[in-house]
Amino acid sequence: MENRVKRAVFEYTMITLAAILLVGGVYFFKFPNNFSFGGVTGIAVVLSAVTPFSASTMNFVLNMALLGLGFVSLGREFGVKTVYVSLLISLGLSGLEKIFPMSKPLTNEPVLELIFAIVLPALSSAILFNIGASGGGTDIVALVLKKHSTVNIGTALFLVDLMITIAACFVFDVQTGLFSFCGLMAKSLVIDTTIENINLCKYFTIVCDDPEPICDFIHEELLRSATIFQAEGTYTHNKKYVILTVMKRGQAVQLRNYIKLNQPDAFMMITNSSEIIGKGFRGLS
Predict the structure, then answer these.
(1) Rounded to whole angstroms, how far apart are CA atoms 281 and 228?
(2) 32 and 42 in contact (C-beta within 8 Å)?
(3) What is the CB-side half-sphere exposure of residue 168 using CA atoms within 13 A?
(4) What is the pLDDT of residues 7-43, one digit of tens each?
(5) What is the pLDDT of residues 112-159, one digit of tens each?
(6) Which burial class, exposed, middle or buried, applies to 159 when counting CB atoms under 10 A from its CB (0-12, 13-18, 19+)?
(7) Within a 10 A sphere around the Cβ of 188, how many other Cβ atoms?
(8) Are strands 267-273 and 201-208 parallel, antiparallel or unpaired?
(9) Which residues pair with 282 in a beta bridge?
(10) pTM to 2 decimal places
(11) More exposed terminus of the chain, fewer Cβ within 10 Å: N or C?
(12) What are the counts of helices (DSSP H) followed by strands (DSSP E) for the chain?
């Protein structure tokens, strides 16, 4: 029970942080520049230009409509986290509009602002994805499509984002449209790279003669575990031991330094891995 509470507190803290990053990136950098590279915020930017309502207001209306669609179509399958994220983002954007009204971009450097408009929401999406949460908005459409059709969700959402971006070229100007295209192409790349770096671990394959000191260091100093098995060198036919273990990056440096200092004849292979699923890592508490 205690572990569940700690896990829930951690997850909702991370969700709140992710929502703050997204709200900041969208309100301060995306909305003032009319960047329209997909998602509900992209639709809101385009609609705000052809209606008397602000982008924050349109975003709030669209998110509430999608929440209603989610409840009607998905029922109990509709996640509490999705509702929390959608409300937090919608209320955050509406609140900032009242507290910090913006009539123009923060700077005269649209490329610099485009970078922040891409990176902050992408980092937010990566955090949400990494803990199994949804960002609401068009993610709700994806969940509905997944349940009620056989449509390729990724392709469908990309086409919607592409149409929003094309619309920006006609509603605003070619420069804004081209900036939006750059944002659309860069968004997925930044999300994937961020997720990979968040989960990056080091996978060790250690071939040695005396595994006990190394395993003791892993257990007692790094608080990790390892798998060990016997092996035989193909050239000398000497008896060897192979240790397999996975470490976070900081722990990996400690283990590498310990082995180099105490067993310099040991053979180490250190591999990057961003998908470690198991106790102590991703997927299990």
Answers:
(1) 19
(2) no
(3) 31
(4) 888 888 999 999 999 999 999 999 999 998 878 898 9
(5) 999 999 999 888 888 887 776 777 777 777 767 777 777 666 677 777
(6) exposed
(7) 15
(8) antiparallel
(9) 277
(10) 0.73
(11) N
(12) 11, 6
